[in-house]
Design goal:
Blueprint lengths: L4 H5 L3 H9 L3 H21 L4 H17 L10 H28 L1 H11 L6 H11 L4 H12 L4 H8 L3 H19 L6 H10 L5
Helix pairs in contact: 2-3, 3-4, 3-5, 4-5, 5-9, 6-7, 6-8, 7-10, 8-10, 9-10, 10-11
Length: 204
C-alpha cells in the first residue's frame, strides 16, 4: 500500500477506491482532491449557490466513502459520485420547497383539502376540517396536507419528505380514515370521505 500522498497521487481511481474500501482515508482524500471541483461545478449548474454546492458535495463524498465498497469500477468514480450528489441536491431542493410552501400556505392548503373533501368554500366546513386535522398525528397531517392540499402524488410527497412510498401511503390512509370518522359521526358526510379516496385512487 502506498505510504504517502505522493504515491496515492499516481494511483488510478479504481485503485484508490480499493484502498479506501480497506480503510485508507488518505486514498479517499485523493479522490476528493481530484473530483471535488467537478462535483461542485455540477451542483452549481443545477442551481445551487456556492455555499450550498460545497455542503452537498461534502455530503456526497461522505456518502460515497460510506458506500465505497459498492463501487465496482463499472463506469467512472467521478460519474458515480456526481450521481450521488445530484440525487442529494434534488432531494434537498424538493424537500425545502415543499416544506416551505406547506408552512407558508398551510391555511390555503387546508381550504383546498376541504374542497377536495366535497365541502366547497363553505366556511363552516373548513372550520370543521381544521378541527378534524388536529386529531391526526404530525406525520399523518403532513402527508395528508401535501397530497390533498398541495396536490402532490404519493410518490412526490415521499421524495420531498425523504420517506418510503409505503410509509407515506400508510400515513395518508390512516389520516383519511380519521378524517372520515371525525367529519362523519354517525355516518354524516361519509360519502364525502369516500369520494376523496376514490378521486385520488391510483395516486403515487
Amino acid at each position: 500500500m502506498p505510504g504517502n500522498s505522493l504515491s496515492f497521487a499516481s494511483q488510478h481511481d479504481v485503485e484508490l477506491c480499493a484502498y479506501a474500501a480497506a480503510g485508507e482515508r488518505r486514498a479517499f482524500g485523493e479522490l476528493v482532491r481530484r473530483h471535488g471541483s467537478a462535483v461542485r461545478h455540477l451542483l452549481r449548474r443545477m442551481g445551487a449557490q456556492a455555499a450550498e454546492a460545497d455542503d452537498v458535495a461534502q455530503d456526497a463524498f461522505l456518502a460515497a466513502f460510506e458506500r465505497i465498497s459498492e463501487f465496482r469500477g463499472e463506469g467512472t468514480f467521478a460519474g458515480w459520485v456526481k450521481r450521488i450528489a445530484a440525487r442529494l441536491y434534488l432531494r434537498r431542493l424538493q424537500r425545502e420547497k415543499r416544506l416551505a410552501a406547506l408552512a407558508a400556505e398551510e391555511g390555503r392548503e387546508e381550504a383546498d383539502a376541504a374542497a377536495s373533501l366535497g365541502n366547497g368554500g363553505d366556511a363552516e366546513h373548513r372550520m370543521d376540517l381544521e378541527e378534524a386535522m388536529k386529531v391526526l398525528s404530525a406525520p399523518e397531517r403532513l402527508c395528508v396536507s401535501m397530497c390533498y392540499g398541495a396536490g402532490l402524488s404519493h410518490g412526490e410527497a415521499a421524495e420531498a419528505l425523504n420517506l418510503p412510498l409505503g410509509t407515506v401511503k400508510s400515513h395518508v390512509k390512516r389520516g383519511l380514515d380519521k378524517l372520515r370518522a371525525r367529519l362523519a359521526p354517525g355516518g354524516k358526510d361519509e360519502s364525502a370521505g369516500d369520494a376523496v379516496v376514490e378521486g385520488r385512487r391510483g395516486n403515487g
